[in-house]
Design goal:
The chain is mostly helical. The chain has 15 helices and no strands. The chain has one domain (5-95, 132-333, 346-363). Residues 1-6 have low confidence and may be disordered. InterPro entries: Acyl_transf_3_dom.
């Protein structure tokens, strides 16, 4: 029987699309805060920002889910072929976009700016070339560690009890790490010296593990998610109320940097969002919804769109002179978001086709 395009779509595709579109909005909201909006608008932006503060965990979960689903019996011996595919899909676009940011938009660098070739290289590899590129540094570690995740996947298939034990042990280790980071790095004055710990794989490995285990037990999990979906919605709402309360405890003006991933309330919220997205995805896949082929198509370009989003955001922001514009702030946010999203995905598609054409020409 011939497979329909919708059968290619999986939970991971939904995760990637939702994470990508949300991270673009995060970037836009960060730019909006540079206009020094009123306190009421700052509070509103803070609430929205916290509401979509799930992008990195959802992206990690989605990538691990799709990878394990499409390579269910892989081992370390399969890594060279996997690495070759990731080179074209992730490494090449990451390299070029990082270079573009450092050369053409050096003003968007984080923490420090390069002053010589050594600091240029350091900014290139540490994820500080642009506000969102810290994620690339972290994601590269997951690519390097993929044989370990394959091993965990194969190990967890032996029994549900073993998989549950792996999850509990990992969760305990993760909670200890998050508590250490929150109290000793984020809250303490050490965050300026130890800030690079936010992009160490340990800060997000639990979401990768969840993606792995989800694949192997998705049929059982799907039933549980449907049964307890309302509890998940309530838990997500309570979690987002808590993280907003925590943000506002820092007082005004609101600083979005005070809404970190690395605290237990945010971990709870992000986990709820992952489970709710999975619930929606399972429902639409079961119904063979017409949107599935579009989700799968866009998910292929989600990472590349994510890479370029700050570039296009800067172009739109400067071209329309939004920094000094008197146009209503929310109109600026909506126009900037829609335009940046369109340009990001369009450029991802065009550049991907261009790269494919170049590779064909080089082979001939």
């Amino acid at each position: 029987m011939k497979n329909s395009p919708s059968q290619k779509t999986d939970v991971g595709d939904f995760m990637k699309i939702i994470a990508c579109t949300a991270v673009i909005l995060q970037s836009v909201l960060s730019f909006a805060m540079t206009k020094h909006p009123s306190i009421n608008n700052q509070i509103a932006i803070g609430i929205i920002y916290n509401f979509i503060k799930f992008t990195a965990p959802v992206f990690i979960f989605g990538i691990l889910y799709s990878t394990i689903r499409t390579t269910p019996y892989s081992s370390a011996a399969d890594y060279p072929n996997y690495a070759k595919k990731q080179y074209s899909a992730l490494i090449v676009p990451t390299f070029w976009w990082t270079l573009i940011y450092l050369i053409f938009l050096p003003m968007v660098q984080q923490v420090n700016h390069y002053t010589d070739w050594k600091s240029f290289l350091w900014q290139f590899i540490n994820g500080n070339a642009a506000p969102h590129l810290w994620y690339n540094t972290m994601m590269l570690q997951f690519i390097l560690l993929m044989p370990i995740f394959w091993y965990i996947s194969n190990l967890s298939k032996r029994s549900g009890k073993l998989a549950f034990t792996l999850l509990v042990i990992s969760l305990v280790i993760y909670i200890i790490w998050i508590e250490f980071y929150y109290h000793n790095v984020f809250i303490d004055q050490m965050k300026h010296q130890w800030y690079l710990l936010d992009r160490v794989f340990l800060s997000f490995f639990i979401y990768g593990l969840l993606g792995v285990l989800f694949v192997n037990y998705r049929w059982n999990i799907k039933l549980l998610l449907h049964k307890y979906r309302w509890i998940l919605i309530i838990a997500a709402l309570l979690s987002v109320i808590l993280i907003n309360y925590e943000l506002f405890q820092f007082g005004t003006p609101i600083h979005l940097s005070n809404a970190p991933y690395y605290k237990l309330s945010m971990v709870a919220y992000d986990t709820c969002i992952i489970l709710l997205i999975a619930t929606l995805a399972f429902h639409l896949i079961k119904a063979d919804n017409k949107i599935l082929p579009k989700i799968h198509f866009l998910s292929v370009y989600a990472y590349r769109a994510y890479l370029s989003n700050v570039f296009w955001l800067v172009i739109v922001w400067k071209t329309l002179n939004f920094q000094t514009s008197n146009v209503n702030l929310w109109i600026i946010i909506i126009v900037t978001y829609l335009t940046t999203s369109l340009l990001s995905f369009t450029s991802a598609l065009l550049l991907s086709n261009f790269w494919s054409t170049c590779k064909k020409l080089l082979r001939n």
